[in-house]
């Protein structure tokens, strides 16, 4: 019944350094506005205090733009979904407080969303030519803050079966890029230069970690020592070999990810495999995942580029699914910096 009438939900995302708002109608995205915070590039990483201040400045215009682009009036909204966590506390509080105030002003329900569930459930946004994964499926969730293999039993039942014991894969990309003198966030730049390089040019040691878990801090240190040694011998080593270095780093990271993903498939017998999170924008990861279809008979699910890095469309789809489920926020709940993917 409820599925037939238009349900408009506003999604608000402010967990890290992007302020974003989106409007979704019955699973279809009508708008998805993202304001990136340029300020952090200067510091080589996200500065939490500056991030909250930028959210504060961006949130009203971003939400107004999302409502305008969706071609609706704010009075048409049925509910407001916001990122409750995990993320930077100061940043989360801006989105949370704004969502609470707007829901009071419009007298509509609030829906709390787990950011990590948002990355995963972005696969359920209605899109042409985009297949939705059937349950259960595995999702490799890779971002600046997380690296997890998650078994998705249904929309809200998620089980982490492997995760990083130190740095996230996005951090591995960003920290390696920093060592090479590239600006933050370095992941997309490594991806860009790697396309022109030889991935076998340099060899980096892969970590040995138990079961389905990951580790990236040793790789980062290995890269740092390698670069220090090489630039001592030749001060222009980085400039002369940037493409090859990036290709070799990326190749090593992708191998680490896929070694574990293959083990996860073996262990669970599940061959429906999705990727999610900012790092899933990486072209090599997409290519290698696609190749597993022919190679191993996996069915793969690759999100549209704009739903990979932090965005509010992914918060809005979780909001819609929770709306259908009647999961509204009934008691005052605040933002929380730490939240497991299995928690609502
Ligand atoms: O999901 P996301 O936007 O934010 C977090 O929740 O962390 O992920 C951001 C991360 C950054 O580390 C960024 O460098 C990385 O995603 N990233 C990439 C690419 N695009 C974004 N890493 C590798 N290749 C890319 N093309
Ligand atoms: Zn994220």
UniProtKB/TrEMBL annotation:
The reaction(s) this protein catalyses: L-threonylcarbamoyladenylate + adenosine(37) in tRNA = N(6)-L-threonylcarbamoyladenosine(37) in tRNA + AMP + H(+)
Binding site for substrate: 141-145, 174, 187, 191, 282
Record note on cofactor: Binds 1 Fe(2+) ion per subunit.
Residue ranges of domain Gcp-like in the record: 28-316
Pfam families: TsaD
Compartments where located: Cytoplasm
SUPFAM superfamilies tied to this protein: Actin-like ATPase domain
Cross-referenced InterPro entries: ATPase_NBD, Gcp-like_dom, KAE1/TsaD, Peptidase_M22_CS, TsaD
Keywords, sorted A to Z: Acyltransferase, Cytoplasm, Iron, Metal-binding, Transferase, tRNA processing
Sequence intervals crossing the membrane: none
EC class of the enzyme, as a word: transferase
Keyword tRNA processing listed: yes
UniProt binding sites for Fe cation: 115, 119, 310
PANTHER family tied to this protein: TRNA N6-ADENOSINE THREONYLCARBAMOYLTRANSFERASE, TRNA N6-ADENOSINE THREONYLCARBAMOYLTRANSFERASE, MITOCHONDRIAL
Function summary: Required for the formation of a threonylcarbamoyl group on adenosine at position 37 (t(6)A37) in tRNAs that read codons beginning with adenine. Is involved in the transfer of the threonylcarbamoyl moiety of threonylcarbamoyl-AMP (TC-AMP) to the N6 group of A37, together with TsaE and TsaB. TsaD likely plays a direct catalytic role in this reaction.
Name of the protein in question: tRNA N6-adenosine threonylcarbamoyltransferase
Organism: Lutibacter aestuarii
Lineage: Bacteria, Pseudomonadati, Bacteroidota, Flavobacteriia, Flavobacteriales
């Amino acid at each position: 019944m409820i599925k037939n009438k238009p349900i408009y939900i506003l999604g608000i995302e402010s967990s890290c350094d992007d302020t974003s708002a989106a409007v979704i109608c019955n699973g279809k995205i009508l708008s998805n506005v993202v304001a990136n915070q340029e300020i952090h590039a200067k510091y080589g990483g996200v500065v939490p205090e500056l991030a909250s201040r930028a959210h504060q400045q961006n949130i009203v215009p971003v939400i107004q733009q999302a409502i305008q682009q969706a071609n609706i009036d704010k009075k048409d909204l049925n509910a407001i979904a916001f990122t409750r966590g995990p993320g930077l506390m100061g940043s989360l509080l801006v989105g949370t407080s704004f969502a609470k105030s707007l829901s009071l002003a419009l007298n509509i329900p609030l829906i709390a969303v787990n950011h990590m569930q948002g990355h995963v459930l972005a696969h359920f946004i209605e899109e042409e030519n985009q297949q939705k994964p059937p349950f259960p499926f595995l999702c490799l969730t890779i971002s600046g803050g997380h690296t997890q293999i998650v078994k998705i039993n249904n929309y809200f039942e998620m089980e982490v079966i492997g995760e990083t014991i130190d740095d996230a894969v996005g951090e591995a990309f960003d920290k390696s890029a920093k060592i090479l003198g590239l600006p933050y966030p370095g992941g997309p730049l490594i991806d860009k230069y790697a396309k022109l390089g030889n991935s076998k040019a340099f060899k980096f040691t892969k970590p040995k970690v138990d079961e389905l878990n990951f580790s990236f801090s040793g790789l980062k240190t290995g890269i740092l020592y390698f670069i220090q040694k090489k630039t001592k011998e030749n001060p222009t080593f980085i400039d002369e070999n940037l493409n090859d270095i990036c290709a070799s780093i990326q190749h090593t990271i992708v191998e680490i990810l896929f070694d574990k993903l293959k083990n996860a498939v073996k262990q669970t017998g599940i061959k429906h495999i999705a990727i999610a999170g900012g790092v899933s924008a990486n072209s090599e990861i997409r290519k290698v995942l696609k190749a597993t279809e022919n190679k191993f008979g996996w069915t793969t699910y690759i999100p549209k580029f704009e739903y990979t890095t932090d965005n509010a469309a992914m918060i809005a789809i979780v909001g819609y699914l929770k709306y259908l489920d009647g999961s509204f926020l009934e008691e005052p709940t605040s933002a929380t910096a730490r939240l497991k993917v299995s928690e609502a």
